[in-house]
Amino acid sequence: MLQASGGMDWMIQIAEKMLRKHPERITFLAPLTTFFLTVMVGTGHVVYTLMPIICDISLKKGIRPERPCAVASIASQVGITCSPIAAAVVSFVIISNANGYNVAIPQVLMVTIPSCIIGLMMAATASYRRGKDLDKDPEFQKRLADPELHRYMYGESATTLDKKIDGRAKASVFIFLGALLIIVLFACCQMIKVDRGGESVALAEAMGIPKMNLIIQIIMLMAAAFNIIFCKAQPKKAVAGAVWQSGMVAVVAIYGIAWLADTFFGNYMEELKTMLTDLVTQYPWSIALVFFLVSVLINSQGAVVVAMLPLAYKLGIPGPVLLGVLPSVYGYFFIPNYPSDIATVNFDRSGTTVIGKYLLNHSFMMPGMICVIVSTIVAYLITNVFFSDYFASFIG
Questions:
Q1: Distance between CA atoms of 261 and 297, rounded to whole angstroms?
Q2: Any alpha helices (H) in 128-159, and if so which ranges?
Q3: For the chain, where are the E strands, in sequence order?
Q4: Full-prediction pTM beyond 0.85?
Q5: Cα separations (Å) of 188 from 136, 181, 184, 194?
Q6: Rounded distance, CA 98 to CA 104, Å?
Q7: What is the largest CA-CA distance in the chain?
Q8: Residue 65 in contact with residue 352, Cβ under 8 Å?
Q9: Do residues 363 and 66 touch, judged by C-beta distance below 8 A?
Q10: Tens digit of pLDDT for each residue in 350-380?
Q11: CA nearest 327: which of 295, 360, 358?
């Protein structure tokens, strides 16, 4: 509904203005924009409008588009573990609370947001001089010599700056941000402790506030309704938009894989527990490798949390350790079959962002591995070294 009301266009315009103002820094700014867009809306499918703009700016500036495009695509998915309304974060909180680790959404974000930003900036730094410059790349020069390909690459500009944004579109953004703020306030109620009959309980429990997954659904549905009533957003236009269509494709593509994986892990839970017990008992952090490998197969961070987190708690892994390795649930860049990665390859008119001949030698492998490894290490240090006493105080 945010896209149908035009609010998404305004957000993309703001991001585009920043990128066009500093084109020489696009390798660092592009992943930050896609990251924070995902953090705000809870899905990486909002970047499809921004990605052609990133490609266009870098190409016109003479920067190899692979450099910002690949890390920006990675950033659009990394932001999921940093969003207060994403399924992965909410599922982590609900499952952790059910297993005695009373952590709230703001506490999760205090770990994942700084760690993922550091990981992304490391990936962007590694990408800054990646590959040959366009004037020294023989493949690009060959494409440039073809008049038809030259027109295809430089003939048009991808932009949203020519779109007129009215007051209703801007109002829809403020409605959405207000809904997001209310959700965060409800989440904070889980952190505040009050005395009830001599027992210390969370304020949310004392007030009878429902679980966060229900709160998020209720508030977001209300925000969608307000967009229809006050901003004249048309449901037909929402269904025809890129966010809805890409999301539905992802649902269909991922649901079967996630169902298969859940069935498999559910059936072999005891065998998996026996196999992993010795390893995770000696090295609790090694559960990050399991999360990553399962994510490669499942293609959904939320599904990895739902399928594997209960097993991790049954293995006796402490909650702070699991929070510290939460960034490792993103591994589906490893095999480049996710819609955002495929779309990025198609958006790059220069042909520098590629899926290699051997499948795994693709443009997203290097920034993806650097980002996930660095983010996981930093998150683990934040949770288990710097904030160990703080987070321990919230364990029931």
A1: 8
A2: 138-145, 147-154
A3: 193-196, 199-202
A4: yes
A5: 53, 11, 6, 13
A6: 12
A7: 79
A8: yes
A9: yes
A10: 999 999 888 899 999 999 999 999 999 999 9
A11: 295
